[in-house]
Design goal:
The protein is 25% helix and 25% strand. The protein is α+β, with helices and mostly antiparallel strands. The structure holds one DNA strand of 18 nucleotides.
DNA sequence: ATGGCTGCTTTGAGCAGA
């Protein structure tokens, strides 16, 4: 069974690429972030026709997340947003797929440590942490958290750790929240299979950063302890980042037995 | 190099991303 996450930076623009990628990578579950479209404009028919059932939580202009499941799998018991956490920004959707719980999240960017968006990010991380704790208990550790975390957990995940030291995405409080998620029993899937690989999942559009492979690993798949023994592979697919008019993020793919 | 691109927005300069 394969699970993937991909920040598409506008599903309207990237729909042809998503369909193309799914043709060659018929994963069982695909989590999308930054749909940038209102709930009513989600391209449900095109994705159904491509063989996927969908649950989505859309928003005009910014944010928006979706869970796609390969038919006949269906997203069930869908929860949009973090329960009891009021937030005008639509960043989280969760669904039960088979016997496991899938949580798709577009983490807050935060902009900079002195921005008002940074404390919002830390408060959001605290709320998500509480939700994860509850979901792990409810689903007996059979939880997968996939998404754009906007956190580079380690200097190994950053092309220029000195330049990024104590900057947003790399700051100690953000990394501490990532560790607290790991402390709940989650594993960083990519690092299970590539403990030392300096690979990235995002490259700035500017200054030919992708061509020079100057990026960061900020898109992750965290595997609940109840699923750890089933994991067999995790990889970052750089291919779509090299296409015409790409998203600035690459898909990350996890394989479970 | 505090910009560089890209997508979006009551269309066009400004915001946001990371």
């Amino acid at each position: 069974m394969e699970f993937a996450t991909w920040n598409v930076n506008s599903l309207k623009v990237r729909l042809p690429q998503v369909l193309d990628w799914l043709q060659n990578n018929p994963v069982d579950v695909l989590c999308l972030q930054e749909l940038k479209l209102d709930q009513e404009f989600f391209p449900q028919q095109a994705l159904e026709d491509a063989g996927y059932h969908c649950a989505w939580y859309g928003q005009k202009t910014y944010n928006g997340v979706a869970i796609l499941t390969r038919q006949p799998l269906k997203p069930e018991a869908v929860q949009s947003g973090i329960p009891e956490h009021e937030d005008p920004q639509r960043r989280v959707i969760a669904a039960t797929v088979g016997d496991l719980r899938v949580i798709c999240a577009y983490f807050v960017n935060g902009e900079a440590l002195d921005s008002a968006k940074y404390p919002y990010k830390l408060a959001w991380l605290a709320a998500l942490h509480g939700y994860l704790q509850q979901q792990l208990a409810q689903y007996d550790g059979r939880v997968v958290l996939l998404g754009d975390f906007n956190i580079a957990p380690d200097d190994l995940d950053v092309h220029d750790p000195l330049a990024w030291k104590d900057k947003v995405l790399c700051s100690e409080p953000e990394r501490a929240w990532f560790r607290r998620m790991i402390d709940l029993g989650f594993s960083d899937s990519f690092r299970l299979f590539h403990p030392q690989a300096p690979e990235y999942s995002w490259w700035d559009y500017r200054a030919a950063m992708f061509r020079r492979n100057l990026g960061m690993r900020i898109d992750h798949i965290l595997l609940g302890s109840g699923l750890l023994s089933r994991a067999t592979d995790c990889r970052i697919d750089k291919t779509p980042r090299g296409w015409e008019r790409p998203s600035d993020h690459a898909p990350v793919v996890l394989t479970l037995d």
